Amino acid sequence: MSKKIMLPxxxxxxxxxxxxxxxxxxxxxxxLTMVALQDSSLRFGDxxxxxxxxxxxxxxxxxxxxxxxxxxxxxxxxxxxxRVEYGLSPLARTLLPLVVELKEWAERSxxxxxxxxxxxxxxxxx
Length: 126
Prior knowledge:
The protein is mainly alpha-helical. It contains five helices and three strands.
């Protein structure tokens, strides 16, 4: 019987499962959903209105994946009509400061990045 050696996670390795985590938290809809939920739990429709441009299908997939990863908690209330709310889990709250900063950095850096894009495009469009 062979023993399996357990190595610590290393996202630089192709086989490391932490890459799937990085993929998920690096997606724009995951980032924006987390920021939208930072202050309170929201219903699906409220999240969708907050995230302009997200399709119902994409938001459903994002919420399911985040729930599977333990980043959000889905609370179902036995009311008529049925009410479902999504909120950040304790695990997601440990990631939230980084995600909020990432969103804010993107907003702060947008003009500079657009300037670099124009310079690059002019340089390589000839």
